[in-house]
Amino acid sequence: MTLLRAVIDTTGLSRRKAFAAIREGRIAVAGEVRTNPSQPHETGALSLDGKPIAISTDAKTYLLLNKPPGFITTKSDDLGRRTVFDLIPAASRVSGLHPVGRLDRDTSGLLLLTNDGDFTFALTHPSHEVEKEYWIRLHAPATEEQLAALRSGIELDGELRRPLRLRRLVANNQFELAITIREGRRRQVRRMFLAVGAEIVLLRRVREGALDLGSLPEGAVRPLTPEEVTSLLPPT
Predict the structure, then answer these.
(1) Global pTM exceeds 0.85
(2) Which of 62, 64, 61, 63 is nearest to 215 (CA)?
(3) Which is the most buried residue in 92, 114, 211, 217, by most CB within 10 A?
(4) What is the DSSP letter of 93?
(5) CA 205 to chain centroid
(6) Domains (range + CATH), the chain
(7) Does an H or E element contain 99, and which?
(8) What is the four-CA torsion angle of 46, 52, 118, 161, rounded to 10 degrees?
(9) CA atoms of 181 and 160, how far apart (whole Å)
(10) In DSSP terms, which residues pair with 28 in a beta bridge?
(11) Nearest CA-CA partner of 185 in 137, 124, 94
């Protein structure tokens, strides 16, 4: 386990905030400040801002949430906005529970939460190329030229991004599309469509890896089965 994953597991901080806390010298191991998020961590008491924290001994928890629009993917918010943790039953809010990746505030659909840092790493590290499928509704019908440009690739943050698959959900309906990507850049799908002049009015993640949203109602949460957890992990 890396120090970064240990901090995520024990504090519930997001990956970004945990990384920043380590880099800022706010994390100590056995009283010694550590600033390298990728260094191994197997033993040694952790502290954050001088306050002791302990490696969680809770059983591993894996949850599937059908996130509604209007909720942000974080544990708390200084502005008082609703977060996905407002939807998690108290009994399921175990120590170290955190979202696996993010959905922006206006995006709905499949969101995983866990207290297992290794599981999070397996699904979010770019080298593992986990597929994510989204359903889209556009403000105006997509033209063939726009679809061709998306399939050719859009430059975002200095890199070319192209969908693994892009299709209509219904034949001859150019308002509603399905897109599959392997990356998870910030607001990637929305930015790709905006780059070709297409505005998304509804964006919903329906699948991640081998797991699909199924019939889970919006705002509901359920535990993953052991078989579903295994299906999401890369082969060993």
Answers:
(1) no
(2) 64
(3) 114
(4) -
(5) 11
(6) 3-53 (3.10.290.10), 62-126+214-232 (3.30.70.580), 131-208 (3.30.70.1560)
(7) strand 98-99
(8) -90
(9) 13
(10) 33, 47
(11) 124
pLDDT at 164: 92
- Rounded to the nearest 5 percent, the helix, strand and coil shares of the chain are 25, 30, 45
Q: Which residue shows structure tokens 């957890």?
A: 229
Query: What kind and span of H or E run contains 17?
Result: helix 15-23
Residue 3 tokens, joined: 């120090």
Encode pLDDT of 21-31 as tens digits: 999 999 998 88
User: What average pLDDT does this structure show over 198-216?
Assistant: 95
- 165 phi, psi to nearest 5 deg: -145, 145
DSSP type of residue 84: G
In the chain, what is the greatest distance between 2 CA atoms, to the nearest angstrom?
A: 64
**Judging by beta carbons within 10 Å of its beta carbon (0-12, 13-18, 19+), is residue 181 exposed, middle or buried?**
buried
Q: Which residue has the higher pLDDT, 145 or 170?
A: 145
Strand bridging mode 165-168 / 176-181: antiparallel
For 216, which DSSP code?
Answer: P
Here the tokens at position 226 are 């052991």
Contact 136, 147 (CB under 8 A): no
The catalytically annotated residue of 86, 104, 116, 212 is: 104
Using CA of residue 190, residue 196, residue 202, residue 203, what is the dihedral sign?
Answer: negative
Kindly state the tokens that stand for 198. Answer: 């297409």
* Catalytic residue list contains 157: no
Pairing label, strands 200-208, 108-114: parallel
